[in-house]
Amino acid sequence: MNALPQHLNADGTAVSNTVRQVAGSIGTALPVTIMTIRTQNHSDELLQSGDMLSQAQIVSQASILGINDAYIFTAVIVGIALLVTIFVPSQKV
């Protein structure tokens, strides 16, 4: 907010809070969506593999694999964000 003129501080705060809320919602929705889709895919793959697993074991294993995929996705996004923040030049205000 230090970069904004004094009379625009209220607008800057409103925009900042809105962006934070939207980014938080998207940041939650994406990994959950990936987990759900990948869990279903893994479940289908495990059912077709012909392994002698019980239904409960298939659901459990598919859920674990789906969660792992969501964590990998999140780790990649965090890694990219870390690289971006390292290479963004800092400016003194």
Please, could you describe this protein's structure?
The protein is an all-alpha fold and 93 residues long. The protein is elongated. It has one domain. The chain has helices at 9-48, 55-87.
Helix/strand/pairing category:
mainly alpha
Mean pLDDT across every amino acid position: 92
Q: What gap, in angstroms, lies between the N and C termini?
A: 11 Å
Task: Give the oligomeric state.
Answer: single chain
Low-confidence stretches: none
In a nutshell, what does this entry contain?
The chain is mainly α.
Write the layout of secondary structure elements.
Layout: H1 9-48, H2 55-87
Helix pairs in contact: 1-2
Keywords summarizing the entry:
93 residues; mainly alpha
